[in-house]
Amino acid sequence: MIVPVILSGGEGKRLWPMSSSARPKQFLRLTGDETLLQQTVRRLVDPALFGAPIIIGGVGQRFLIAEQLRAAGLAAGRIVLEPIGRNTGPALAAGALLAAEADPDALILSVHADAAIPDAAAFRATVARGVAAAAAGRVVLFGVKPSFAATGYGYIEPGAAIDPDVRAVARFREKPSAADAEGLVASGCLWNSGIFLMRAASLVEEFAAHEPAVLAAVRLALAKARTDADFLRLDPEAFAASPSIAIDHAVMERTGNAAVVEAGFAWSDIGSWSAVWEAQARDADGNATRGPTVLEDVSDSLVFSEGPEVAACGVSGFIIVATPEHVLIVPKVRDQSVKGLAERSAGR
Description:
This protein has 348 residues and is α/β, with parallel strands linked by helices. The chain contains twelve helices and 17 strands. The longest helix is centred in the N-terminal third of the chain and has 15 residues, at 88-102.
């Protein structure tokens, strides 16, 4: 049985103004009738493969998580609340320690709550292909075949075959230049989805070897944790003492046991408004709309509104997003500027 560990702590500033620290993107309906969190948990409902998930999020998200699960008729094994953000390394250390405590032989599947994976059956089938290697002690990552030469994703270079479904990881490449990305795609490299499968006890061992300060702080935060209704509150002082580090830097780039399975599913981290546009059903002019909108001579654009009616005319390749408080207008090719705009708006 695999214990999913769902990371739900991100803020999603690149999807401002809909996404904010009070309502990050995993709690938004961006790619369907359910939020990204609800889609993620539903994707993991398969009693033959998965146990109840551990969901790890910020203390300010407690009611969002619980309410969205309740509204969708979904359940978590545990909801763990971080008193302060310490990146994905300490969060996954907590998930691994909890899973290993319940079952020393448990496998854990690390997933992010804010990714879009349209084909749940293909996702589960891909995960199943990595079980044997993970049970044998491998850190199994799932690499996605690129659909374009992305510069905002990390890449995995597959190495020698371990078995027909699994290859060793030769190296990682983080967010390359456009020219380097073209070369990586041409050479058969895969996008790093950030999804991985391994024994919980093995991940604990990796932390002990590479980031013992993280492991010690998280152990203490769990030992002093407080149960509050359906939530487990990590001890604030102990957790704050942990170094802030991503799981990629803490373990993945250091372990000698990394392996990769090529994913049989489409994937997007929904990390920009262009990615949201890509994930939508679009009309004959290439437009994706939601909420009250009026369009004339508009093409290849995303127009979302959570309040006022948005009317647009004579534009192509634009992102227009309106909430009751803010309006964003930006060319799709400039949507990486949104995070900076969000920070400037927050500072006003």
